[in-house]
Inverse folding.
């Protein structure tokens, strides 16, 4: 598989799954724009990529989203592939006093940013007949834990956005797909406040028991699926939702 001369934007590339995706695309010859808020982490990921364009940006900020597209086109001349990966979760009961505040934050980060960045990048991706991959979650397909209503809803909506835009952009030769991971070992659960740093390993050991295969994935396993879907090998695939969850959804 080669992505020589392809230009790829990866949001949330400063950590976890997005970092693995950016490094893998770069290793396969792509020119990558890596996006995140944490400049220090972004610098570390940049060291593992070949001449990346680094953009410190908050995906909930419209001007930052415009900067991501404009600077990529200015620097690399085009956009072939967009990976909408930046995401977060906050726990809340629907009965909590701040439930709507939590909902708005999660929806803005996970869903609105994906919709907005796709809106801005699509005209460029039509020119290159490229493709878009949204990093969703199995939480968009089933209710798997308590107090995740905002996250679950954002990811379910993302999946239907994927299908809707795949339908619209197919006639322009652009494919749009979703990758829905199950548990992947990243900073996510720590960032969600589900585990302190020293509890992360034990938490993942526990989560592994909830999957049919008895394991959690490394971020590079998701990157492998993403690069396959972005490649010409997947030329027949659009509007599809790909689960990679170690059998979490089929565990009995
Ligand atoms: P991490 O917490 O390790 O990484 C999240 C990334 O998103 C970081 O690079 C972070 O960058 C970025 N991000 C978050 N908010 C913003 C923002 N407002 N603006 C810009 N960047 C932002 O988690 P993962 O790598 O695990 O998560 C990546 C994606 O995978 C998410 O969409 C998540 O929902 C999904 N996923 C993860 C699973 C898992 O088990 N890990 C399972 C299923 C789905 P920074 O902090 O620098 O801004």
């Amino acid at each position: 598989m080669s992505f020589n001369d392809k230009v790829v934007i990866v949001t949330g590339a400063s950590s976890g799954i997005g970092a693995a995706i950016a490094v893998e695309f770069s290793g396969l010859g792509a020119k990558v724009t890596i996006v995140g808020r944490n400049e220090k982490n972004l610098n570390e990921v940049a060291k593992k990529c070949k001449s990346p364009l680094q953009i410190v940006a908050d995906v909930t900020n419209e001007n930052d989203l415009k900067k991501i597209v404009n600077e990529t086109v200015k620097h690399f001349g085009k956009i072939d592939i967009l990976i909408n990966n930046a995401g977060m979760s906050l726990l809340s009961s629907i009965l909590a006093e701040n439930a709507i505040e939590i909902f708005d934050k999660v929806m803005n980060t996970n869903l609105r940013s994906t919709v907005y960045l796709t809106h801005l990048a699509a005209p460029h991706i039509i020119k290159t007949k490229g493709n878009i991959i949204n990093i969703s979650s199995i939480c968009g397909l089933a209710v798997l834990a308590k107090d995740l209503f905002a996250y679950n809803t954002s990811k379910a909506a993302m999946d239907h956005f994927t299908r809707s835009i795949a339908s619209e952009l197919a006639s322009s030769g652009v494919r749009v797909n979703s990758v829905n991971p199950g548990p992947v070992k990243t900073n996510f659960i720590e960032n969600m406040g589900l585990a302190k740093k020293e509890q992360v390993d034990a938490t993942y050991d526990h989560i592994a028991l909830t999957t049919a295969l008895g394991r959690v994935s490394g971020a590079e396993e998701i990157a492998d699926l993403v690069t396959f879907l972005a490649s010409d090998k997947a030329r027949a695939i659009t509007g599809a939702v790909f689960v990679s969850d170690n059998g979490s959804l089929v565990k009995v």
